[in-house]
Amino acid sequence: MKFVPKRKALHIGVIALLGLGLTSAQAATLTSLSEKNASKTVIVKLGSKVELTLHSMYWQLAVPTKSSSLTSKGAPILKPILPGPTAPAGCRIAGSGCGTQTWVFTASKVGLTHLVASRTTCGEAMQCTGANGRFTVTVKVSN
Hints:
Number of domains: 1
CATH architecture: Sandwich
Low-confidence stretches: 8-26
Order of helices and strands: HEEEEEEEEEEE
């Protein structure tokens, strides 16, 4: 039997614990959603982070209720694009609603949640109709 000094044994234990921590962190993933996921069902693992980014400042998201499988991480992250000569072509006029809004969630329990966003304006004096004014995606949280 080989003698292992206490100090070396302690280092081995710490390394083992760090390895377990890395495995747990790797199990929780990030799922990024946007307009390309409209009307689709996306499957995520329990504990994962879900980010929904919509490309207009006019979207309003109906934040899921407390009974939802997703838990909101607070107010959306707003990144407006200010109009001006250096803005992208479609964003040079005030009132165009250019920018992104990102909502962050954690997949907190197994089940289905429907994320529903709507907007009535698609730009200054331009009303949204049909699919341009409504966004839905279903998030299925699994073990």
